[in-house]
Amino acid sequence: MQNKKNLSITLIIIYLALLAVSIAIYALLQLYVKDIDRGTATNLMIWSATLFPSIALIYTFNFWREQKGSEVLSKLSEDVFFRLTNLAKIHNQIYEDHRKILLGKLLNNIDMSESDNSKELFKLNDIELNKICENIHLIGKYTKDKDLENAIKNMHYALSVYAARRFDVYIGMKVIEETETSSHSIAFDTNDKNEYLKPHSQLEISKSN
Question: Which of the pair, 54 or 77, is modelled with greater confidence?
Answer without folding.
Answer: 77
